[in-house]
Design goal:
mainly beta; Agglutinin, subunit A; 4-stranded antiparallel beta sheet; 4 helices; 19% strand; rod-shaped
């Protein structure tokens, strides 16, 4: 029996294998995320506040929490803190008073010793501000005196006590002498109402030429009265001596 001697037909060809790599799903194509903080560019609405890394630090400004860029307690108290009290800040505080800072605390009310004669002050109530009161008319108070050719006149102007240039102390009504010490022709130069109550006429060298003899009455004073009498009164108003020329 004839057999097919030919070699069995074998597929000598190489089995074709898919040499390509198995395809891996790389995901959807990359989408550009757009501008973002940290991308190195200040864009997409970024600011120094929202993204200092891209946009740089913000310039100093009031309200940024740091006292810088020339800010002070006056221009930015929120960052630098409140200013300490000072005269001129519009508030009367920090120990300020009307004396030390009238602009903030207002003017001080008038008072004796403020250097101004106001608020009802007078020479009697505040001589320091208003000046000394002029001597009362017709009086020499303790410590007052007359020198030659000086005089004191009664309040009504009718009687005058004058220390004349001749040394005589004379009380006149008009041109009529009513009373005198009789010391004309002497060196009488000072008629003093002394603190001890004595009214004394002194000559040169401090020699007493005449006296009322009323020493021992501190605060006594001499009065040239409107009735023509010359009287030394005690501090309580008691007549200690008089010229006896009353009632004219």
């Amino acid at each position: 029996m004839t057999s097919d001697a030919g070699p069995a037909a074998r597929d000598g060809g190489t089995v074709s294998t898919d040499a390509g790599g198995t395809g891996v799903d790389a995901g959807p194509p990359r989408v550009d995320a757009g501008p973002g903080c940290g991308d190195g560019a200040c864009n997409g609405g970024e600011t120094c506040t929202t993204c200092a890394g891209d946009c740089g630090a913000c310039p100093p400004r009031c309200g940024d929490g740091a006292c810088n860029g020339g800010e002070t307690c006056t221009t930015c108290a929120g960052d630098c803190g409140a200013c300490p009290p000072r005269c001129g800040d519009g508030a009367c505080n920090g120990g300020e008073t009307c004396t030390t800072c009238a602009g903030d605390c207002g003017a001080c009310p008038p008072r004796c010793g403020d250097g101004m004669c106001n608020g009802g002050e007078t020479c009697t109530t505040c001589a320091g501000d208003c000046g000394a009161c002029p001597p009362p008319c017709g009086q020499l108070r303790a410590g007052d005196s007359l020198s030659r050719d000086e005089s004191v006149t009664s309040c009504d102007g009718r009687f005058v006590l004058v220390l004349q240039g001749d040394g005589n102390l004379v009380l006149y009504q008009g041109g009529v002498a009513l009373w005198a010490t009789g010391t004309d022709g002497t060196t009488g130069s000072t008629a003093a109402m002394q603190g001890d109550g004595n009214f004394v006429l002194y000559g040169s060298g401090g020699v007493a030429l005449w006296a009322s003899g009323t020493d021992g009455n501190p605060g006594a004073y001499l009065a040239v009265q409107d009735d023509g009498n010359l009287v030394v009164y005690s501090s309580t108003g008691v007549a200690l001596w008089s010229s006896g020329t009353c009632c004219r």
